[in-house]
Amino acid sequence: MRILPGTSVFLEIIGGEMLKLHNFDRSPFGWKVRMVLAEKHVPYRTEVPENKSESPAFGKLNPFRLTPVLELEDGRTVFESTVINEYLEEAYPNPAMLPRDPYERARVRMLEDTTDQYFNQALRDFRTAQYEYAPPFLIPKKAEQVDHKLVEESKKKIHEHLSRLEKEITGRTWFGGEVFSLADVALAAPLTGSLPLLGLLPDPKYPNLAAWSRRMVERPSYIASAPKEPMKIKKD
To answer: DSSP string spanning 74-137?
Structure first.
């Protein structure tokens, strides 16, 4: 059970008729939904899918058999993390996680979408080129198994994304300006989790991202929603 630090709000509750979030603890997409639920103080029940690729029950929740899935109190479902967070923003508008200005709202949505579609893909390529995944461990591949070309290509893409994000956050507290936004929650996992683990952050070229990360890890919704058992690199 997760409790928002400094409050009596239970963010994850077992039993009762309430929202259910079907997700995996270490998934960056599940994490970003959990953070929005925490930020908005929405109680929910968590479900960890079993055999989601073959389970008839899970197939009814999402025909594409991917997580996260938000199951509403009446059994209807919303899937795709970005769509889930948009739903939560509309259903639970306080606190707002999109700016009021139409362009700024679009900018936040672009940041969230490009994180999911391109930034996370470059990060996955960088990781899978060098490591096998045996949850919760990343196991280094033997030297002859490492895809060095993919390592360099994906590393270049990651730094292109980081340079763009460094410019976006310059002069802003959050990626939504003064608004802690849907873009911020989407960027929490790569910027504070995967990239530091893989040795690509911190980097002196990105001081504003470093300052953002320090603010992020102190935020109560981050603490409440973070993976209970983060990914780690297995040492020999």
So the answer is: TS-EEESHHHHHHHHHHHS-SS--S-SSHHHHHHHHHHHHHIIIIIHHHHHHHHHTTEEEETTE
